[in-house]
């Protein structure tokens, strides 16, 4: 978790021993992990990774979970070949690393991925989810791409100055009560801005007692007291996608 020497809360946590059910493909200038359900479908969800990148087993597990619920899932490398952050990296250099990977400057990658889903996968109903860094990216994309019919932003950092309310389609925001980097007053401010200005459906939900990354980080068998909230977060995410896609 975050502390003074680690400015980002995305501690690697419990890394799944997980190989994934999908395959890696080339999508124009980037690589991506893709998983498809057995039955044909025109529904697809873009999964946006956290700072640890598109190959993190935890994130691929979430993509496969979406596929188990009937969606084509794609987890592209939104860092476009640049190195993902590693837990062993020097956290004093994190700010410099992060500046070269702006989650709001991913339109080139998003364009390529959406084109791939439409032309190569036959997808017509599109959504997006993202974790931490990817949660910020979801917020950006949901204000930019009208073809994304539903978005779920999981513990994406908010700034007081952020333009947050011009969402084009329904968006669900998941936060943890005990997140070291996203204070609850920022979540409250987000809610106030959305309530005042947002013209589409949205929901902001805070999960009691949870820390940053709880939906895709923790192993239920190691943290039994968190299991109900982990399951609730995942179920809420799926239900939101099911409702609007």
Automatic annotation (TrEMBL):
Protein's name in the database: Carboxymethylenebutenolidase homolog
Domain Dienelactone hydrolase stretches: 30-244
Entry-linked Pfam families: DLH (PF01738)
Family membership noted in the UniProt record: Belongs to the dienelactone hydrolase family.
Record-linked InterPro entries: AB_hydrolase_fold, CMBL, Dienelactn_hydro
Main localization, broad class: cytoplasm
UniProt keyword terms in alphabetical order: Cytoplasm
Recorded GO CC terms: cytosol
A GO MF label: hydrolase activity
